Amino acid sequence: MRKVWKLGPARLCCGYIHDIEYARRRNRPGNPGNPYVERPLHLELLRPAPEQGEKLPILLMVPGGGFREPKVKFRLPWLSPLAERGVLVVFVEYRGMEAAPLAGMVEDIRDAVRYLHNHGAVYGGDPDKIVLMGASAGGYLALQAAYSLPQVKGVIDLYGVVDFPTMAPGPDKETELRASVPARLTGETELSAILKKMEENSVLHAVEAGGQLPPTLIAHGTADTIVSPEQSEMLYRALCKGGYQADLHLIKDARHADLHFFQKEMIDLYEEFLRTVTQS
């Protein structure tokens, strides 16, 4: 068979720019790696071909991983449909608990936001239209960063941890409590100090403290056995009580970090939220 094709203009669905250094950090002494040598932290970027002069809204995605070093690159396809639709999608690398305290992880995300606010235009992004998104532990980090930075116009929380005390065993099970991730993240050794710091580290503590919080979209699976959907219910209730804009979407039968959250219906939801909160 012989056939002659006439095709339209060549166009890629999106481009990929990798390993953009946004900060340098030292490892925490006593943790893996040389604490005296700075390590770079990177952004991975998916971008459409912007129209002439167009500035794209920026979505900064904070991947999860149990507060350990996140595996960033294999997650890139999850949000590529948003890049195809005209969103500058950025995935952020941050230090895990192996190399940094919890506050250091949050500061990494804040620095990534600051970098995009200062340099996002270089990649076709609009520095005044930044939205954060995070999944699981990344949901926690995205919320904490979004609730403390005026540059963030909105935040999308996917099955994130928001209240550490209810994620850990009670003080009557001290051995199990001390071994839990929420307790280890405090960096404390005394039981009373651990309990107090877990409370202070919780997202709910930041919400109850008040201030100007951006709109929040929350999504959680009803079949999640890793992070209970009650975590998202608690966040939604706290935001509503404080008079903040919040929407909670429960996905029936969805488990923790499964692909339900990246199906077309959910991508549509994320895009609608992003476009709404970044309207000039």
Tell me about this structure.
With 280 residues, the protein is α/β, with parallel strands linked by helices. The protein has 10 helices and 8 strands. It has helices at residues 80-84, 102-119, 137-146, 164-167, 174-179, 181-184, 191-201, 203-208, 229-241, 264-277, and strands at residues 15-26, 38-47, 56-62, 88-92, 125-135, 152-158, 216-221, 246-251. Strands 1-2-4-3-5-6-7-8 form an 8-stranded mixed sheet, with helices on both faces. The chain starts with 14 loop residues before the first strand and ends with a helix.
Name its key features.
32% helix; alpha/beta; 10 helices; single chain; 280 residues
Query: How many strands, what sense, and barrel or not for the largest sheet?
Result: 8 strands, mixed
Radius of gyration: 20 Å
Mean pLDDT: 91
Number of strands: 8
The backbone outline, from C-alpha atoms, is globular
Strand order of the largest sheet: 1-2-4-3-5-6-7-8
Proportion of residues in β-strands: 15-25%
Please, how many helices? 10
Helix % is 25-40%
Poorly predicted regions are: none
List the helices and strands and how they pair.
Blueprint: E1 15-26, E2 38-47, E3 56-62, H1 80-84, E4 88-92, H2 102-119, E5 125-135, H3 137-146, E6 152-158, H4 164-167, H5 174-179, H6 181-184, H7 191-201, H8 203-208, E7 216-221, H9 229-241, E8 246-251, H10 264-277
Parallel strand pairs: 3-4, 3-5, 5-6, 6-7, 7-8
Antiparallel strand pairs: 1-2, 2-4
